[in-house]
Amino acid sequence: MLLTSEDIASLSVATRNLSKGYDKGPLAVDSLDLSIRPGEVFGLLGPNGAGKTTTIRMLLGLLRPTCGQVFVHGEEITTGRQRVKSRLGVCPQETVLWPELTVSEHLYLIGRMYDVPGKTLRAETERLIGEFSLGEKRNQPTKRLSGGLRRRLNLAMALVHGPDVIMLDEPSAGLDPQSRALLWERVKQLTKDGRRTVVLTTHSMEEADRLSDRVGILDHGKMLVLDTPDVLKRSIGEGDVLEMELDRAPSSEAMEALRRHGRVEQQAATATTVSVRGLDIMQRFPGIVVALTSSGVVIRGTRLRPNTLEDVFLKMTGRSLRD
Amino acid sequence: MRFLPLSFAIAKRMRRDLFTLFFAILFPAFFLLIFAVAFGKTGPMKNQRLDLAVVNRDEGLRVNFGNGQDTLLLGVTLVDVLESLSYSTSSGWMRSDSSSSGLTGLDSLGLGARRPESPVFGVVDTLREADALKKVSSGDLDAVFVIPAGFTKAAMAMAMEDVMGRVFTGAMDGFRGEAREPEVTGRSSGEVAGPTGPWSGSSAGPGVLGRKPTVSEIQRMIDDVSRRLERRGKKTGLPLDSLSLPSRKADPVALSLAGDPSNLGFTMAGGIIRNVLDEFLKKVSQRSLEEAKDFLPAEPSAATADLISLENSSVAVETRTVFDYQVPGIIVFALLMLVSLVSVTLLLDLTQGHLERLKLTRMSSLDYFLGNTLPWMVLSILQLGLLFGVAKLLGYHNAGGMLAGVGLVLLGSLSSVSLALIVAALAKNEKQASAVATMIAVPLSFLSGAFFSVRDVVVSRDFFGHSLGLTDLSPWTHTTKALVGMLTFGKSLAEVRWNVMMQVGLTVLLLLVGIGLFSRRRLTAQR
Ligand SMILES: Nc1ncnc2c1ncn2[C@@H]1O[C@H](COP(=O)(O)OP(=O)(O)OP(=O)(O)O)[C@@H](O)[C@H]1O
Ligand SMILES: [Mg+2]
Question: Ligand 1 atom 12: the closest Cα is on which residue?
Answer without folding.
Answer: A28
